[in-house]
Design goal:
The complex is a heterodimer of chains A (172) and B (158).
Chain A lengths: L4 H13 L6 H5 L9 H11 L36 H12 L3 H9 L9 H7 L15 H11 L4 H8 L10
Helix pairs in contact in A: 1-4, 3-7, 3-8, 7-8
Chain B lengths: L1 H7 L34 E4 L14 E5 L5 E5 L5 E4 L11 E6 L4 E4 L8 E2 H4 L4 E2 L2 E2 L25
Parallel strand pairs in B: 1-7
Antiparallel strand pairs in B: 1-4, 2-3, 2-5, 5-6, 8-9
């Protein structure tokens, strides 16, 4: 599986462009969280993980596309249009192919022991992460991501993170 | 890799000496980093008048708010550049940024936070593209006239 992954990811834009839907379930018989609710999760990940200076970059193993991050369409830009469905799909595939076997195990167990995933360990800061700690157990981003792994996404938590206001600070 | 990135920035402009006014719009922290060849900055960038304009604006208040809810104010010089040293402010990331231009009464909030470092030009490279939000600008309103002067050169509060 590992050997075919670069080719597969290279084909993602073409497959998306052709309207194909490819998920781990269809390719390797592995469990993935639901694609149908991923947009809410992706929107929650965008402000803290998917910016251009973090996972909104092609050299990253985890590539997140978005309206204010890396764009899939070469004619797009990071300032104007909202995230497209093709971008949600590309981000979904990138995320679910990071550690497909571990993800399969977590999803199959109903989200038990989510720190089997480096995605969760890094975001929580329990594994070295250049971007530092982006979520704490039980906070809104954590609830959003982990609820998606269990199959019942916490839409309120996701929306709360996706629309987080800038911090209020008194004038100096 | 670092040397390749530095080489990609090209040579200094012939009519601007290395210093506070040089290399506007470029990713400052590529050199001005603890491991780089120039004095380190924690936050630095360049402010343009409009998204597609070459006009850079001095005297802009750059309001930085970090994850510890601390505020630091910096001001652009007449090249549109601003920079913050570690002695002045070492932000806890993520970092939020707002711009205020008092002479024109313009205000702009950055829509997302800076998560990796304070290098504005790393993401705001030139024109908009699939990997760039375009240059940092004050206003998109074409009806707003350009300022008559570029503002003070000192990079201090006007």
């Amino acid at each position: 599986m590992t050997r075919t992954r670069p080719l597969f990811l290279a084909l993602v834009p073409a497959l998306v462009g052709l309207g194909c839907t490819v998920e781990n379930d269809g390719v390797a018989g592995l469990h993935t969280p639901a694609r149908a609710t991923f947009a809410q999760v992706a929107d929650a990940l965008q402000p803290s993980c998917g910016t251009l200076d973090c996972h909104g970059q092609r050299p990253r193993n985890l590539r997140l596309y978005g309206g204010r991050g890396m764009r899939l369409d070469p004619r797009g830009n990071s300032a104007d249009e909202p995230t497209t469905d093709a971008e949600y799909q590309a981000s979904f595939l990138s995320l679910t192919w990071l550690e497909p076997e571990a993800l399969d195990a977590v999803v199959a167990s109903g989200g038990q022991d989510p720190e089997r995933l480096s995605l969760v360990r890094k975001a929580r800061g329990s594994e070295r992460h250049k971007g530092g700690t982006q979520m704490q157990p039980g906070d809104a981003l954590d609830r959003c991501l982990l609820s998606w792994l269990t199959g019942a996404v916490d839409a309120d938590a996701c929306a709360r993170v996706a629309s987080a206001p800038r911090p209020y600070v008194d004038a100096p | 890799m670092l040397q390749e990135q530095l080489d990609a920035l090209g040579p200094e402009s012939a009519d601007v000496l290395p210093g506070p006014l040089h290399r506007p719009g470029q990713p400052c922290l590529r050199c001005h980093a603890p491991t780089g060849p120039a004095s380190p900055f924690t936050v630095a960038g360049t402010v343009f008048q409009k998204p597609e304009s070459d006009l850079r604006v001095g005297g802009v208040e750059v309001r930085l708010i970090d994850a510890a809810h601390r505020t630091h104010l910096a001001y652009t010089n007449c090249a549109g550049n601003f920079f913050v040293s570690p002695q002045e402010f070492e932000p806890v990331l993520p970092l939020w940024v707002s711009l205020n231009e008092p002479r024109q009464g313009l205000h702009s909030d950055m829509e997302s936070a800076m998560n990796k470092d304070g290098d504005c030009g790393a993401c705001h490279q030139g024109k908009k593209s699939p990997s760039s939000a375009g240059q940092v600008f004050l206003t998109e309103d074409p009806a707003v006239p350009d300022p008559a002067a570029s503002g003070p050169c000192g990079g201090s509060k006007p």
